[in-house]
Amino acid sequence: MKTKAAFLEKPEKIEENPLKIKELELPELKENEVLIKVNACGVCRTDLHVVEGELGEIKNIVPGHEVVGIIEKIGKEVKTQKIGNRVGVAWLYSSCGSCEYCLSGRENLCQNKQFTGFSKNGGYSEYIIADNRFIFDLPTGLKDEEIAPLLCSGAIGYRSFKLANASPGSTIAMFGFGGSAHLTLQLAKKLGHKVIIVSRNENHLKLASELGADFTFSPKNGDVYENLKDKDIEAAIIFAPSAIPIMNALKVIKPSGRVVVAGIHIYGEIKIDYDSQLFHEKTLLSVESYTREDMIEYLRLATNLNIKPVYTNIKLEDVNSALTEIKNSEVMGVKVIKF
Ligand SMILES: [Zn+2]
Ligand SMILES: [Zn+2]
Prior knowledge:
17 strands; alpha/beta; 2 domains; 7-stranded mixed beta sheet; Rossmann fold; globular; 6-stranded parallel beta sheet; binds zinc ion; Quinone Oxidoreductase, Chain A, domain 1
């Protein structure tokens, strides 16, 4: 059986349009796998890092890890799903199940995990094969393209929000305003926090205000520390893939505050001055993807709180330009491939 997919032979700058539309032969279904006809796949910044080779040298891969589709075929050992079910596939393709991390509910840190659209072919494709133990039942009442971005952009924001551990009603600052931040802003607002959005993009700040941000600020208009130091910021989440906002956030958070970095890859070097950025029991930590438990919690929360992405549907053929727009911070919300 064949599938039409956006295929990457080897990493290249996105401006070279490295993803080529190709017919690929699907492998035989293994016992624990399902074949899914893809309805929608979100375009995530991580895919840009994959395509440009920042997550390591890869070859011959189909990116895409925010996948919503319908099961068309199941392997012999699959007991929990049936043909016709609508399911989601995300970044964590599988984990080993037996290491210290897997055994302690931290499968996101498993040293033998595989990733959708990186170690295994992903959702920039009409069909995808997935491990049935790592796919998700999806809430009804949301469109395919409304759910797809929740599966990574939303989930990573949720885990970052959880690790930020901000007290009820406190102020959270978010640096960068792409796919993940625009969902996490909604989450934090609906859970009663004050939210500050910092971005260099005026259109992003406008969207942030429309989505309920209490205060927005562009570093083009002045010094971040001087403008945010009196804002009583307890936690900051860094969505922009850069060292600069991390250093700014550490400086503006109040004593015992936390800075959580949501990105899988950061440009630049983080230089920390102990007195002004880390002393007073401040914490800096990173987030690595999500666990299945996080995803199940988040999908329930997103449904109950009516969190929906701002999205534009695109065709598979347009995925190079969508990734270029992510690189240039030109996307409002998210772009979703609709099949
Ligand atoms: Zn493991
Ligand atoms: Zn992602």
